[in-house]
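Possible regression after last week's pipeline update?

I re-ran a chain I had predicted before the update to compare outputs. Posting the input and the new output here so someone can diff against the archived version. Not blocking, just want to make sure nothing changed silently.
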Amino acid sequence: MGEEDFSKGHCLLFVSVSMQEIYGYDLCRWKLVLVTVGVICSGGFLLLLLYWMPQWRVKATCKRTTLRDCEVVLLRTTDEFKIWFCAKVRIMPSLGANPLQNPNPIVHKVSNGHAVHFCESAAEENKNDLKKYLPVSKPIRYFTHHSVKYFWNDSVQNFDVVRGLDESTFCSSIHNEHSTGLTKGMHDYRKAFYGVNEIAVKVPSIFKLLIKEVLNPFYIFQLFSVILWITDEYHYYALAIVIMSVISIVSSLYTIRKQYVMLHDMVAAHSIVRVSVCRGNQEIEEILSTDLVPGDIMLIPSNGTIMPCDAVLLSGTCIVNESMLTGESVPVTKINLPNPSEYPKAMGDEIYSPEVHKRHTLFCGTNVIQTRFYTGELVKALVVRTGFSTAKGQLVRSILYPKPTDFKLYRDAYLFLLSLVVVAGIGFLYTVVNSILNEVPAHTIIIESLDIITITVPPALPAAMTAGIVYAQRRLKKIGIFCISPQRINICGQLNLVCFDKTGTLTEDGLDLWGIQRVENARFLLPEERACSENLLKSEFVACMATCHSLTKIEGVLSGDPLDLKMFEAIGWILEEPTEEETALHNRIMPTVVRPSKQLFPESKQATNQEMELFELSTSYEIGIVRQFPFSSVLQRMCVIARVLGEKRMDAYMKGAPEVIASLCKQETVPVDFECVLEEYTKQGFRVIALAHRKLESKLTWHKVQTINRDAIESNMDFMGLIIMQNKLKQETPAVLEDLHKANIRTVMVTGDNMLTAISVARDCGMILPQDKVIIAEALPPKDGQAARINWHYADTLAKCTSSSPAINSEDIPVKLVHESLEDLQMTKYHFAMNGKSFAVILEHFQDLVPKLVLHGTVFARMAPDQKTQLVEALQNVDYYVGMCGDGANDCGALKRAHGGISLSELEASVASPFTSRTPSISCVPKLIREGRAALITSFCVFKFMALYSIIQYISVTLLYSILSNLGDFQFLFIDLAIILVVVFTMSLNPAWKELVARRPPSGLISGPLLCSVLSQIIICLAFQTFGFFWVKQQSWYEPWTTESDACNVLDATNTSSAHHGNETLHDEHYIKNYENTTLFFISSFQYLIVAIVFSKGKPFRQPCYKNWAEFITLNLILIIVVLNAIVSVLTEEAVDRCGVCFLSSLFGCREKTPKAKYMHLAQELLVDPEWPPKPRTTTEAKVPSQENGSYQIITVT
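New output (post-update):
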C-alpha cells in the first residue's frame, strides 16, 4: 500500500488467517466535550448508542491521524459481516524493536548475567517511568486485539504480530544458533514482547456479565417499556414483565458463565507446570511454564508432561498423545529435528514450519507420555511459540471469538422488525394527531404515542425465538447429540449436502487383515490368508511386516497406528525396546528388536539335550531396527533400515501406497499384471499396502546409516507383494445414506485413503449407484514450460489410460436427465472423483472449473486436513448448506467451517465441532437434520405468531384510541401472560417428524408464501375487529361512551346518577369501561388462539399439533373449561334432584316440622279423623247457627 494510504491512517492488518482494515485516530478534546453534552442532554441514550456502535464512538470522540502516531485504532473485518472493533494503543519501553535480535545497549549487561526489568502493565506506562529508560530504550507502541498483541513495525509502516521461531527460521539455525538457550537478560527482554506464556480464558465476574447483558438493546427497550407502563399506571403488567426479564437475565448469565467456566477448566488443566530450562551458561533452571518464551530450551522429563507451549525436538524421541488437537487417540512418536549442517550432502536446509515438520514438533496441550534418550543425553526441545500463538491457543481463540453465523433467517428477522418499527411509526403519528384533535393533555399524548411503539415491537420476541432452539437442544441431548453452538441447530435444518470422512465414519474404525499376495520372480502367487506360517517365518516378506512400522510400548502395552498394530499382530512376533538404563549406557543407535515368539517354531519331539541347545540357537532369530524413516502423508510411504542378528549386511524395508512403492522398485521385479490385480482389490473396497525390500551394501556402517539421505535408500527396491486389509462398512451406513438421498440431501466422501478404494466404498454404501459413471479428474501442475492440465478418465478404465491420449470419447459422456426443478440436478448419472494433489492444482490453476466440479464431485481421496476445509468452503461458495461428519481426526478445520459439523469423537477435539455424537455412528446425521428442520419451522411459527400478536394488539389499541380509550392493566396482563406467554412456550414443544422428506423448509422470512401468510392473517384480523367495533354501536342497548359511563354496571338513569354521586372512587380513570373495549378484548383474545392454531404446523417437519399435549390443552383451554363446566353442572343437578333432599336431611339431622300451608295442615288433621271421609248411605244435615259463634252444626243421619 502506498504512502498516500499511510498518511491517511488506513492500512490492512493480517489477523490470524484473515485480514482486517485498520485506521488510526487521536483523541479530540472538543469532540469529547460535545459528546459529553450530548450524553447529558439525551439522558444517557447517546452513551448507549456509542457503546453499541464502536465506530461511531471513535469517530465522535477522535480525529483521523497516521497509524504511526495514533492513540486509538479502529479495525474492520474484510469479510461479508464488516464488524468493527476498537483498541487503545499502549506504549512499552524497550531496548530494541525485534525480540529475536540482540539489542546493542544490553550486550555487556547480558554477558554479565544481569537481568533487565521491563514494565508491561498500562499503569506503569507514564512519562516518569519512561524517563529512566530514555538513555538506552525507546518506546514501542502496541495494542491488543482478540488476545493477540500487535507491535508497530517501522519496516512495513504497520502494526504486526511478533512472530516466534515458527517462521523464517532455518532448520540449521535452530541447531546452530538457538540450541544453547537464552541468558537471563535475553529471556527478560523477550518476555516484554511475548508476555506471559498462558492461554488465559478469564471468567468474567457476575457483575461484569450482568452489566453487559443488561446493556443489550433488547433489555434497554424493555426498561424503556416498563418505565412507560408504570408512568401510565399499568403496574401489574410492568411487574410481570420485570419478573420475566429477571428470570431471562439470570438464566442467560448462568449459561454464559457456565460455558466460560467449562472452557477455562479445559484450558487451565495442567497449563501451569514447573519446567526445567537450559540457560546460555549451560545452567539448568527450574521456572514456571508461564515464564517460557520462544528461544528457551526446555527439558522434557522422562515420565512425560503436558506441553505448555509449541516446541521443536532437538534431541531424543517422545511418544505423544495428540488427541486434544487432532482427535486421534493413537500415540505418535516424535523424533528430533535433523541438523542439515551436519550432513550437507545428505539433506538440504529448509525453513522450519510446525505444519511441515510436525513429526518433530511437540504441540501445546498434547500429552508427552514417555521419552527416550541416549548416552545420558537429555531430551531437549526448543520453544518456538507460546500463549495464544500456539496450536492450542489458536483453537481456543476460534472458540472465544467465533466467526458470526450468517443465516438468512436472522437477516430477514431484522428486516421484519424494521417493518414493524415502520408500522409503529404510523401508529405513533396517528395517535398524536388524533389526541391533539380531541384536545387530550400533552402528557397523555406522550405516554400513549410511545405506548403504541412498545405494543408493535414485542419485548418478548427474542425469548420466544430462543425457546424452540432450547427445546431442540434438549431433544438432541436425549438422543446423545451434544451442542455447543445452539444457533447452528436452525442452520442444520437447511443442510442439503453432507461430507463424510471414510475410515471410522462410514466404515469400521479398525482394519482386518484379509490376506497377503506375495511376488516371486516378478509373478503374483496365489493369495494367502495367514502370514505366520512356518515356511514364511524367516522370509523377507514377514521381516518387512515385523520391522516396517512405528509401534512402541507404553507401560508394557504395544501401541501405535491401528494399521501397523493389526499387521504386526497378524505375524505373532514380539517387540522389545531398550530400557532407560540401556539407552543411557549406549549411543543413539541402540536398536529396537523384534523376534518371533517361540510358539511359531516347530516343536522338537523327544529331543536330546544337545538337540535342545541347537534348537534354542536356531530360535534366536532377531531383527534390530537400526533407523526409521517415519510415514509421510506427502510421500505416502515409510521405510526402515534393519539388521538380522549375526548378519553383516543391513536390509531396507519399505511399505506404502502400491503405486508409489512400485515406482520406486526395479521394473523387472514388478509383475506385469500389477495394475490389474491392484484395481481388482481396490474396486472391491480393500485397502492395499505394497511391500518392498533391498539388501544394502556392506560398506554402509551403523554410523553412516544414521546420516544417509532417505532418497538414497528408497530406490532400486525389490517388489515383494501386497498386504490386503479389509475395512468393513458400518451396518447402519447404507440405510442412513439412502434416507439422505430420498430427502434430496447430497452426500460426498472426503478421505485420506486411496481413490479406487474410496470409489468402491462409495458404490458399496450407495453413495454412487451401480449404473452411474465415475469420471476421475487427474490434474497435473505446470512442468517444464507446459501449462497445468487435467486428464479425464473413467474409473473403470483408469489402469488402461495414458496421459497422452484422451480417455473419454464425447459419445460416451452420460446424458443428463431432464429435470423439473433445480433440486433434482444432483440426481445426474455421473460423478467426479479426484485426489488431494489434483484438487490443489484445480484450485490454483482452474478456478473457473471449481464450481462445476464440486457440483458433481462425490469422491475426494488423499485429502489433507486443510484441503478438506478448502473443499467445504468451495461447496459453500456455490450456496450449498454443508454438513461435515468425521471422527475428529484431521477433520477439525472442516468441522468448524461447515454449517453443521458433527464429530463422532468424545475427545477434547470435539470442542472444535458445533455438535458431538456420543455414539460413533452416522445415524446421528439424519436425526440432527430432522431436529434442525423442526427447530427452523418452530422459529418461523413463533416469529409469525409474535408478529401477528403485535399487529392484533396494535389494531385493538388503535381502534380504542379513536374513542380515547385503551385496554386495561389486567387485560394486558391476561393477554400477555395467560395467552401469549403460555402459547409461545408450548407451541415450540412439537417434536421433529419421524422421517426426512425431500422437501426442505424455507430459509428466510422474506419470501412470497410466508409474507402472503402473514399479510392474509393481518387482513382477516383487521376485518373482524373493525366489524365488531362498528357492529356493537348498531345495537339497541348501546350507549355512546362518556367519562362518567360504566358499561360494566348498566342501571337506570336515576340509579346511575345516584351511584355516581354516591361513590366517586369508582371513576373510570383509564376510560376502559365501555362496550367497544369489551368487544375488541373478546375478539382479539380468540384471534390470538386462532392464529396460534393456524401457525402451529406439523407434518412434514414437525409432529402434528394434537401430539403436543401442552399446546393442545392450552389452545383448547377455554373450550375445555366451558365443556367441563357444563358437564359438572348437569351432573350436580341430577344428583340434587335424585337424592339431594334426603342427603341434606340426614346430614343436618332435620326434624319433621308443622307444615306452613293450610291445605297441608288440613290434610294432616283429616288423616287422624275417624269420621272422614263420610261413610256411604249417610246424610249430612245443616243446623241453625248458634248465636254465640254463628257456626252451623252438621248432623249426619244414617
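Follow-up from reviewer: compared with the archived run. The mean pLDDT is 77. Marking as no regression found.
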